[in-house]
Amino acid sequence: MDYVLQTNNLTKQYRDFKAVDNLQMQIKKGAIYGLVGRNGAGKTTILHTITGLKKATSGSVVFDGTDLLKEQPSKIITHGVAHVPEGRHVFVDMTVRENLEMGAYMFGRKDKDKIAARMDNVFEKFPRLKERQNQLAGTFSGGEQQMLAVGRALMADPKIILMDEPSMGLSPLLVQEIFSIIKEVNAQGITVLLVEQNAKMALKVANRAYVLETGKIKLSGDAQELLHNDEVRKAYLGA
Question: Per the confidence metrics, is the pTM higher than 0.70?
Fold first, then answer.
């Protein structure tokens, strides 16, 4: 099996509490994986340990043969790992173009052609960003900021994108648009690991999924099968 990302006994412990408990997760190249569970299940902590925002207590995170836990957080993105954080975290006092350029900082000033090509790719995917490229990000709506956050991640030319609650705070219409964008991104060959409290939408868009409970994987498998699993429907889908 061609796995691009594997966590091996990944653990993040705070004193006596294990936010992530010996996590075994395997992400196949080119697929969309959903990571669902209630608040406090450890979903965001998993993403933060993968990207180096939080230091793991033990275990490993192997991406394309490299253990990311041995890398400096600033170097992890150079391996092709991009992160769209919860809450978007765009730079509100910077323009759209400046925000996108921040996503490509690892290329350096010498790679102007590569940065320009990535910018064109983002603008093709998000015409609204192109139209308003000189506007301050802080004037954008929540949905527009989410598009900008995804565009900024794409500027890094990633192999995998970790998305944390991309639908949070958005209207139903914008939620549909964001999930369409996720599918488009994946269609370019980019692997997606999607953390979502909206379990129904996550399972609809994903190929495979993991269901988390207090830092441990409770269920895993084909996303469509989990969508129709009675236990999942009762616990997470309100059915």
Answer: yes
